[in-house]
């Protein structure tokens, strides 16, 4: 069987649009191009019906009601809307927010902006396995806490947080609970009621839908209010103005439906492939470390450090495979991944990490090809590595006085 | 981020990967950088009686640009006298490899490595003449 190169193993960055999703979207680029807010003619009515069908599908995926789904341009906007919207609307109730150091930048930077305006933010550390502890949340809460924002699953290390227990803690203390569920929804079971969520951010392009569309779940029972961050025609019950991205929304709805129907079987298949990749590498490459909990993890994520081999060099070596790295060299700022640092991964190991993200279209043949490639390239790069040489001759690298530069 | 062809070339066909005998009196060794920074280079030179660098070897823990910078360094200094090698500037490496601004520090490390290896060699030579005296 011929393998198609390059191989895509970066499903956390984005996912290909499923052909069935694309088929569902196309009519809304062609004859059915109406604006869903055009109330007076069939072009608008058709668009509106399609949007409402999609709304029901997205709601069904997370155990919500259609009326609780607000369409946005993506999860970054949803995160901004949830955090700033709640902080502003309920500012007389309190001005303390709790989140975690491993959150996505859309959450962290929204919190940073609020800090400039006087909000106090607590950034919780994570356990060495990468998860947020419900006890840590409980201990951080005060009677001024208005919002707790904790992600369902982390994009870098794939670890899944105990959101159900965290949610119970948050609600017992009377604050709002926001979950950035982008990486988890559609891959692992998630329910807004089991997790006591008040607000949930979703993204279409992480679940085989198109880029440029997302959603924010906003609980109605009991009612959660948010101040909109975009003003305009009052769309989405006043929460998010702007003409709806009808084709994108239709695609999102179809993607959500497919995930709901296929998630269980797909999860099993992807997990088996991930384990095949992990065990294949671990059996033939010494000195590797998996970053984050293996047990509470997204089925498709393998974030692994190869000691003594730098991540960007490794990615250059894996030239026909699309992956990403927690190495400083690959970030514009020359700083290693803040998520890996939060785990307590020593800096030189953060530089050696590679993130493999498997998904719906990953095949066994691709996994086997990548295993062989990884084994070969790690060997090659270790032969070129002075650190490997020192370690092989029994030197403890921590004992060396490294020069500054 | 696209790598320049020269950088890829040095990664695919690195020149002079390996080690020389660090205990030998005519070998100079430098170990520069730090694992915490993601860049460590080991550069070694073997200098003949006439002060010409007969052989040079390197090993690098670092990105493609770091590997290429150190590979290029060993390629250049082979056949130079020690004084000529001291004159190699990181800017020349940047130009040859078309390194973007964010990778300039890799070339600086390579220049440091050359100078470090020479300093180590010279220290050994001074000791030799001291012992001989």
Task: Report on this structure.
The complex is a heterodimer of chains A (405) and B (133). Chain A is an alpha/beta fold. Chain A has twelve helices and 13 strands. Chain A has helices at 19-25, 42-62, 75-89, 105-116, 134-140, 163-172, 246-284, 311-317, 338-342, 347-350, 364-383, 386-392; strands at residues 7-8, 69-72, 96-100, 120-124, 145-149, 176-180, 199-203, 214-218, 288-290, 301-306, 321-322, 324-325, 353-357. In chain A, helix 7 crosses helix 11. Chain B starts with a helix and ends with a helix. In chain B, helix 2 (64-77) packs across helix 5. The longest helix of chain B has 29 residues, at 104-132. Chain B has a three-stranded antiparallel β-sheet.
Quick synopsis:
The complex is a heterodimer of chains A (405) and B (133). Chain A is of the alpha/beta class and 405 residues long.
**Count of DSSP helices of chain A?**
12
Name the chain pair with the biggest interface and residue counts per chain.
Answer: A-B, 32 and 33 residues
β-strand number of chain B? 3
Radius of gyration of chain A: 22 Å
The overall pLDDT average of chain A reads: 95
What class do helices, strands and sheet pairing of chain B give? Answer: alpha+beta
- DSSP strand content of chain A: 5-15%
Main sheet record of chain A: 7 strands, mixed
> What's the tally of helices of chain B?
5
Order of helices and strands of chain A: EHHEHEHEHEHEEEHEEHEEHHEHH
Give the amount of beta strand of chain B, in percent. 15-25%
Radius of gyration of chain B: 15 Å
Distance between the termini of chain B: 57 Å
End-to-end separation of chain A in angstroms reads 49 Å
Average pLDDT for all residues of chain B: 92
List the strand order in the largest sheet of chain B.
1-2-3
């Amino acid at each position: 069987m011929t393998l198609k190169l390059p191989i895509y193993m970066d499903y956390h960055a984005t996912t290909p649009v499923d052909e069935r999703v694309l088929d569902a979207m196309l009519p809304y680029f062609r004859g059915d191009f109406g604006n869903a807010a055009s109330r007076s003619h069939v072009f608008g009515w058709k668009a509106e019906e399609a949007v409402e069908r999609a709304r029901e599908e997205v709601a069904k995926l997370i155990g919500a009601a259609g009326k609780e789904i607000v369409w946005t341009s993506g999860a970054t906007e949803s995160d901004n809307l949830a955090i700033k919207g709640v902080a502003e609307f309920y500012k007389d109730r309190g001005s303390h927010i709790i989140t975690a150091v491993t959150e996505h930048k859309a959450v962290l930077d929204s919190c940073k902006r609020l800090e400039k305006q006087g909000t106090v933010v607590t950034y919780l550390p994570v356990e060495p396995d990468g998860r947020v502890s419900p006890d840590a949340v409980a201990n951080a809460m005060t009677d001024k806490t208005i919002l707790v924002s904790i992600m369902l699953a982390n994009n870098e290390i794939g670890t899944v947080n105990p959101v159900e227990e965290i949610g119970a803690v948050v609600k017992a203390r009377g604050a709002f609970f926001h979950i950035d569920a982008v990486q988890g929804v559609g891959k692992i079971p998630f329910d807004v009621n089991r997790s006591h969520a008040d607000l949930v951010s979703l993204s279409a392009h992480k679940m085989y839908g198109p880029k440029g569309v997302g959603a924010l779940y906003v609980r109605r029972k009991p009612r959660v209010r948010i101040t909109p961050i975009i003003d305009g025609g009052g769309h989405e019950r006043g929460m998010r103005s702007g003409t709806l991205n009808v084709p994108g929304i239709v695609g999102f709805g179809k993607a959500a439906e497919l995930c709901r129907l296929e998630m269980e079987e797909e999860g099993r298949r992807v997990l088996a492939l991930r384990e095949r990749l992990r065990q294949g590498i671990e059996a033939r490459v010494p000195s590797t470390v998996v970053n984050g909990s293996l047990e509470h993890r997204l089925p498709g994520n393998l974030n692994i450090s190869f000691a003594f081999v730098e991540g960007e060099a490794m990615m250059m070596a894996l030239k026909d495979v699309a992956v990403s790295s927690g190495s400083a060299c690959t970030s514009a700022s020359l700083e290693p991944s803040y998520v890996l640092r939060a785990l307590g991964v020593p800096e030189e190991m953060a530089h050696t990490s590679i993130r493999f993200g498997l998904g719906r279209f990953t095949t066994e043949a691709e996994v086997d090809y990548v295993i062989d490639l990884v084994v070969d390239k790690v060997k090659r790069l270790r032969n070129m590595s002075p650190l490997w040489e020192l370690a092989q001759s029994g030197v403890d690298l921590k004992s060396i006085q490294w020069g500054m530069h | 981020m696209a790598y320049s062809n020269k950088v890829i070339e040095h990664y695919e066909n690195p020149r002079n990967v390996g080690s020389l005998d660090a205990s030998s009196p005519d070998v100079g060794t430098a170990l520069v950088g730090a694992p915490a920074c993601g860049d460590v280079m080991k550069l070694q030179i073997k200098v003949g009686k006439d002060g010409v660098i007969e052989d040079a070897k390197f090993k690098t823990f670092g990105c493609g640009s770091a590997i290429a910078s150190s590979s290029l360094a060993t390629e250049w200094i082979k056949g130079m006298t020690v004084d000529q090698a001291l004159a190699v500037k990181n800017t020349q490496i940047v130009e040859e490899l078309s390194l973007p601004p964010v990778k300039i520090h890799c070339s600086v490390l390579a220049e440091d490595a050359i100078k470090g290896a020479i300093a180590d060699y010279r220290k050994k030579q001074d000791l030799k003449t001291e012992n001989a005296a």
